[in-house]
Amino acid sequence: MAERLLKISFQIKENILLSLKETKEDFLKKILIISALVLYKDGKLSLGKAAELSGYTKMEFIEELQKEQGFVFDYSKDEMDEIFEDVDRLP
Q: pTM of this prediction?
């Protein structure tokens, strides 16, 4: 079954794009990557879904994260402790 696509639109004043010296297409690409980065960093989207939202591959998205000095894997101390406990139990 094919996924349904939703069209989301918003309006901005033309002078914003003129100030940015960007086309509508370039601005939209930036909005999508910025949104994906924020949603990933906030733990709202997985790496794969954030990459999908941005229109990037996972590797391209990871590169964008690195440019923004973001962590690809951002685990809490408790999560890390749990991971290491699981590793210790491996044969």
A: 0.70
